[in-house]
UniProtKB/TrEMBL annotation:
Pathway(s) per entry: Amino-acid biosynthesis; L-histidine biosynthesis; L-histidine from 5-phospho-alpha-D-ribose 1-diphosphate: step 1/9
Domain commentary: Lacks the C-terminal regulatory region which is replaced by HisZ.
Lineage per the UniProt record: Bacteria, Bacillati, Bacillota, Negativicutes, Veillonellales
Database matches in Gene3D superfamilies: Periplasmic binding protein-like II (3.40.190.10)
Protein's UniProt name: ATP phosphoribosyltransferase
Organism: Megasphaera hominis
Length: 210
């Protein structure tokens, strides 16, 4: 039985598709530039669909995909409570969540501060745990702009190399979580396709994804 994998479209799918190819799965119609969203491997054992990150767990929970690969940040922010099994830390897409602000500018955390972020739940939980009073402003990208134009005091965002912060004159105030990409599985698929899914997990475990 073929396994259907929903991959988070973007950084994660590009690395995973490269890796699957190196592991012997040939997807004849796949290129990074392609606008196609569904790809089947030549042996007929894998079908891959490219899905927006927060939707990966939706496809898997509802059984429209057997397996999903998506960032842990997205599982925590958008899919908490999804009825899926998390079966593997696949080790790619490593990044940190951080509070950042304008370089050299002191932020008085004893006062109510505004926070720009794509991750309102994660941000709120962090500040609540630290007993800081905050107004969260949900943004959809280019979050680094917010403290530069006076929209927020600080941001909560993903930091990987730190290049985006540096390029915009910001600095990390505190790292507070780290993430990597996770493989999730539909519980029914896990039973029905146990052999096929176990084989795929073993292939991924044995060959370190770069
Ligand atoms: N430097 C990084 N910036 C953002 N995400 C990263 C980074 N490094 C690893 N990741 C992982 O990659 C995922 C996002 O990938 P990408 O930004 O390509 O997708 P996207 O759908 O374009 O996201 P968005 O629309 O939120 O920008 C994150 O959920 C995270 O798990
Ligand atoms: O530390 P770095 O290696 O610079 O990576 C971090 C940057 O990458 C992500 O943005 P993305 O490219 O997804 O753009 P967006 O903010 O517009 O979504 C993230 O939101 C940071 O801005």
């Amino acid at each position: 039985m073929a396994i259907h994998i929903a991959l988070a479209k973007g950084r994660i799918h590009k690395v995973v598709m490269k890796y699957l190819k190196e592991s012997g799965y040939d997807f004849p119609t796949y290129t990074e530039e392609s606008r196609k969203l569904i790809f089947e491997d030549a042996s007929g054992s894998l079908k891959v669909t490219l899905v927006k990150s927060p939707d990966v767990a939706v496809y898997v929970e509802r059984g429209a995909a057997d397996i999903g690969i998506v960032g842990e940040d997205v599982l925590i922010e958008d899919n908490a409570g999804a009825k899926v099994y998390e079966v593997l830390d696949i080790g790619i897409g490593r990044c940190n969540m951080a509070v950042a602000g304008v370089k050299g500018k002191t932020v008085d955390m004893s006062k109510r501060i505004t926070v720009g972020t794509k991750y309102p739940r994660i941000a709120r939980r962090y500040f609540e745990q630290n007993h800081h009073s905050v107004d969260i402003i949900k943004l959809n990208g280019s979050v680094e702009l917010a403290p530069l134009v006076g929209l927020s005091d600080v941001i909560v965002d993903i930091v990987e190399t730190g290049n985006t912060l540096r390029a915009n004159g910001l600095e990390v105030l505190e790292y507070f979580m780290d993430f990597s990409a996770r493989m999730i599985c539909n519980p029914v698929s896990f039973k029905l396709k146990y052999q096929e899914i176990s084989t795929l997990i073993e292939v991924i475990k044995q060959n370190e994804i770069k």
